[in-house]
Amino acid sequence: MAVLVTGGAGYIGSHTCLELLNAGYEIVVVDNLANSSLESLRRVKELTGKDFTFYETDLLDREAMEIIFEQNEIDAVIHLAGFKAVGESVRLPLRYYHNNITGTLVLCQLMQEYAVKKIVFSSSATVYGMSDSVPISEDSPLSATNAYGRTKLMIEEIMTDLYASDREWSIALLRYFNPIGAHSSGQLGEDPSGKPNNLMPYITQVAVGELTELHIYGSDYPTLDGTGVRDYIHVVDLARGHLKALEKVLLSTGVEAYNLGTGRGYSVMEMVISFEKVTGQHISYRLTDRRPGDIGICYSDPSKAARELGWVAQKGIEEMCEDAWRWQVNNPQGYNKEKPLLRAGIS
């Protein structure tokens, strides 16, 4: 059997491909490389010693996508492809709606035509919006607050309608919290384009000297130290969650949502202190005002995934920091060795 992985060259996608190959799955990868690197897939092949088929294709290109289904016997899909920057989605909503939703519609139409009715969808905890209670369970109210989150929520609704129309479908909606860290080899990790949007690559780039200081948005939240609290999950744990969800959709029908998080919240300052402790690196930071729309505390209730998928996050915050730092030290310029550093004197 072959599993089609969309967005397989990205941060979460590359780690998921590696775990799939190590578990014995045959994979086919499609990625338009708009926000990812072919180097990540080369390293996946190197780390696993296994080969797979790759297509540099955009999900919006229906003819090219159909060729993939014609040339391969696809049994299931793990759908990670999509634009993912919250701030950019606020500035460019139409771009996000067109890419994320239309691309998914093309994919699902082809899956239906080729009788491939098993899919694991990369959703997001952003579908919960400004949740006012924690921990957040799958039954919490859904209310996205930005275009990115709304594309995820709309796709969840589309897939729910799809199952209602055809009970042969099997769909897992994975609501990620905050993935960080990297593969323990130091060969796979998060490689953001430009200034990072997420906390951990921002911290590591300050530590390696590419950025001057970390900006911490908000120091007056009702938390232990006043900084925002989030549920950080190791990307390898997250990747393994996809395998557990895949096992379920291969053996059943229905549509279910699952939180993938640790169930434990850490503040931004706790993250900085943990990183400094593990790595011995000093992180310069500046406290600034809250960003509009940010909430103080957000962490998951992952008990449904434990109960129904047999999945529990295994890696703690120190391992997340250690692996993220190893990736940054080994790859100070990310996958692109030609990318100029923001600060001179680092090799």
Automatic annotation (TrEMBL):
Cofactor(s) of this protein: NAD(+)
CC annotations in GO: cytosol
GO biological process, one term: galactose metabolic process
One Pfam family it belongs to: Epimerase
Catalysis: reaction(s): UDP-alpha-D-glucose = UDP-alpha-D-galactose
Gene3D superfamilies: NAD(P)-binding Rossmann-like Domain (3.40.50.720), UDP-galactose 4-epimerase, domain 1 (3.90.25.10)
UniProt superkingdom: Bacteria
MF terms in GO: UDP-glucose 4-epimerase activity
Family stated for the protein in its record: Belongs to the NAD(P)-dependent epimerase/dehydratase family.
Descriptive protein name: UDP-glucose 4-epimerase
Lineage summary: Bacteria, Bacillati, Bacillota, Bacilli, Bacillales
